[in-house]
From TrEMBL:
Residues 208-328 form the DNA mismatch repair protein S5 domain. It comes from Chenopodium quinoa. The lineage of its organism: Eukaryota, Viridiplantae, Streptophyta, Embryophyta, Tracheophyta. Belongs to the DNA mismatch repair MutL/HexB family. The chain holds residues 22 to 353 of 881 of the full protein. This is DNA mismatch repair protein PMS1. It comes from the Eukaryota.
Amino acid sequence: KSVVHKICAGQVILDLSSATKELVENSLDAGATSIEIALKDYGEEWFQVIDNGCGISPNNFKVLALKHHTSKLADFPDLQSLTTFGFRGEALSSLCALGRLTVETRTKNESVAAHLTFDNTGQLVAEHKTARKVGTTVTVKKLFSNLPVRSKEFSRNIRKEYGKLVSLLNAYAIIAKGVRFVCTNMSGKSARSVVLKTQGSGSLKDNIITLFGMSTFTCLEPLSISLPGNCTVEGFVSKSGYGSGRNMGDRQFFYVNGRPVDMPKVGKLVNELYRGANSRQYPIVVLNFIVPIMAYDVNVTPDKRKIFFSDEGSILQFLREALGMIYSASSV
Ligand code: ADP
Ligand code: MG
């Protein structure tokens, strides 16, 4: 009963970045080691996530985009022990309702791939054979075209939405170990250009160097702090005096057990401590909280971005002391 209750209906897809996030997480859940995000006109016309994961088996084609279809829950006794990103079975069905969804997929057991077209209710309406390596490509055309008001809003804000998407992809590309990320965009008739690219290295350090450059990396201080309740936080923050003047949030990434999340309170704390000594700058922040699965709840918001710690007060206090030490020590 509680499982059903927690998988409550809710809008998962709020904008371009949440749409893409769901697809990227599906690729990660499928064990992909290569994930490509292709955009047309910054995602306004269409966007596509191409992976080399396990693919989808033909007996799932019909139910794939139906509401609450998920292949991920059966393997877990309850939501607490869940380690996959997905489990609600809402992303593909929501995308059908909001745009036009097609899927190309092939498992290692199939010799050819299938091309699947779904309608707005998530029904499979067309299927034909196609050529593809093992893996899955999900394409969404004209996101929000079914909602006139939101569609206008979407077009008007497309560059902002695109910026948010790139920042989110950075978040995944930094933390993912052994997963190659590429994002490309094609505007109008101009050539496709690479927005972001990593090699799928095995470490946070190498990913940061690939994305932000060696010179940026040398301005970061590695962190590893023990927190109360068997928690640790690992990552990097700007050394004192080496932040950037950019807006906060631009290069600030927070994770819980490798899952990108919003942490406004932690973000605010780091900025305050850092800016105490560097009034005009914002630090680069990459922090992964490694916590026992019981200590937090990801099921609070449909997009799974908001995280609640059961012991938030003392976690913040520990962080304050540890970061305070770094920033006061390096500013003298
Ligand atoms: P959820 O991720 O919560 O299970 P989704 O609506 O995101 O729900 O996806 C529905 C199902 O489609 C997944 O459970 C999975 O079986 C399958 N699926 C979606 N994308 C992929 C992919 N890239 N590779 C393999 N299977 C996928
Ligand atoms: Mg999913």
